[in-house]
Amino acid sequence: MRGFAQRWLLFAACVVAWQVVAAAAADPFFPPPSVIGRQMYGLARAGAGTGDVLPSLLRLGAGFVLGSLAGVLLGLAIGRSRWVFQLLDPVLQFFRAVPPPTLVPVFVVLFSIGPRAQIASIVFSVLWPVLLNAADGARRVEPLHLETARAFRLTGPERLAYVIVPASLPKIFAGLRLALSLALILMVFSELQPGAANGIGFRLQEATTRFDYETVWAAIALLGMLGYALNAGLRVVERQVWRGQP
Predict the structure, then answer these.
(1) 81: buried, middle or exposed (CB in 10 Å: 19+, 13-18, 0-12)?
(2) What pTM value is reported for the model?
(3) Which of 78, 118, 147, 229 holds its CA 20 to 30 A away from the CA of 193?
């Protein structure tokens, strides 16, 4: 509790310092937090919550869930077969090395301009870190645990549910945390592309072209808050999952 309070006191001190320096500089490109907060409130009253934030979060949620499910299922399947893992490892490493933003134009061609291409780019960014971590976790299951499960005559699905998945959870959640950051980046990047009609990234781009730096900073601050909230929510889910383990 003391460490928690210290961290937030440090954060508050940084905000106060930002406020003092920005107010003294009176630079329109570097507004103080009080101006950014007022701009965020004004945008919220103007309907930005349902017009931009909600569509962004829906696309982020859809892409993250689909990519995570596919990554966990494929990762566990690949990780439990040494032959399949060695066969696919070059392919996995190749696609992991491809920066997801570079494929956004490819998804636009495949799915046309719109939410489908945006969600597909998020799915791609989420898939690889989750898949590779799940595969690594499945490969590192203690052989003694598997032999014990066989001794108790557990079926394949039971070994998966009671031995392999629990043993892989640390790696899976490590991949999910990394994937969540990538999903947030791809959410914004896909909304910066031509044809986007709403979203936080779209509003950020539109404000930049109008030199509306108060809105630009409001969007940046909102992204920071969303990233923090989503990561905190994922940690809560992780703790709940661990509590449910025997």
Answers:
(1) middle
(2) 0.88
(3) 229
